[in-house]
Amino acid sequence: MSKRVGQEMSLPCSVVSYQIRFEGNTTEDTKVKFMTDGVLLKEIQNNFLLTKYSVVIIDEAHERSIYSDILIGLLSRIRGNPLKLIIMSATLRVEDFTQNSHLFKVPPPVLKARQFLSMFWQHPVTIHFNKRTPDDYLQEAYRKVCKIHQQLPEGAILVFVTGQQEVQSLCHKLRKRYPAKQDDPKAEEFVVSYVIDRLIFPLTVQVFQNPPPGMRLCVVATNVGETSLTIPNVKYVVDTGKVKMRVYDKVTGISAFMISWVSKASADQRAGRAGRTCPGHCYRQDGSRLLKFTAPEITRRPVDDLVLQMKAMNIDKVVNFPYPSPPDKEALKFCRSAPSLVSHAGEWSSKVTPLGRAMSCFPVSPRYAKMLALSQQHGLLPYVVAVVAAMTVQEVF
């Protein structure tokens, strides 16, 4: 993103820069800086007023991750002049922000730019639906890609699946069906690539390059391809309508990843990938089961886990924090006496302990995280891992 913006503004990378967790190219001359929400949270811990910035833009706010929601809550308490906060999204439920007096005492102005921009930027996208919902959505996606390649005009294909295992499986089947011509690489007609959360640069660089004439590119992606990346020349989108989402299981008391239907907002984002450079087509497997919006991540996490994560970010007043979509306050207050938190998140307004900070790194509930953290000290980690694994499923056998 920083490279593209720098090119369009005719500015060097020292002026338009980026910063991610372990990498960046910022300098003293940097005027525009792209970063992840986690990096900005770290900067706020060291400089709450963000005095070196005049504008903070939070893009793709409809994703409603826990870090973006906490960021918006923190930034809502920083007074303007000179700092300005801009929240952007094409499919955002703005009522969560404009009608939330606890977040913004004065409702912020809403600028609806989508209709204006679409006249100059977004091409029309035709939505197609299956006559019936397939039992095997991955096999149906494979069949649809083959049909597009054999029957429709040139143009890149973007396929949305749920995770890395499905990405690898579909890529393997497509490459087996349309093998590369080893004797003449330039004559290759069908190139399969992929995009996942953990990008491997040498393997994904071809995704962002225009394919040669007579060659069709097929990109298999997880939901990271909805908004985080722009792939050129995508004309066809094959949407399985599925996403792997982290949800809280009240039976086992842990968070687990489950495959579910995407929201209508996410489906619209996926379809929009096909209309960037020319009129496109989006093929959906089902449209009747889609919720309007995805529930914010902060409401899908167990409350004790949320408290521990926020304490680890040095956010002490958890109950009165200005959430865009607040969790249940009674459940937050109940955490004061939770045995898994009382000695590690300390008193309600104190700092998290070193053990509590270590516990926050595990993707399980605090009571299981404590078992894992302490087992390492006693040389029992392999056994406790097995116990925790058994306790985090409804049925072992």
TrEMBL record:
* Entry annotated with the keyword Signal: no
Domain Helicase ATP-binding, first and last residues per copy: 1-110
- CDD domains xref list: SF2_C_RHA
Which Pfam family, any one, appears in the UniProt record? Answer: Helicase_C
Q: Which Gene3D superfamilies match?
A: 1.20.120.1080, P-loop containing nucleotide triphosphate hydrolases (3.40.50.300)
Q: Which InterPro entries match?
A: DNA/RNA_helicase_DEAH_CS, Helicase_ATP-bd, Helicase_C-like, P-loop_NTPase
Protein name per Swiss-Prot or TrEMBL: ATP-dependent RNA helicase, putative
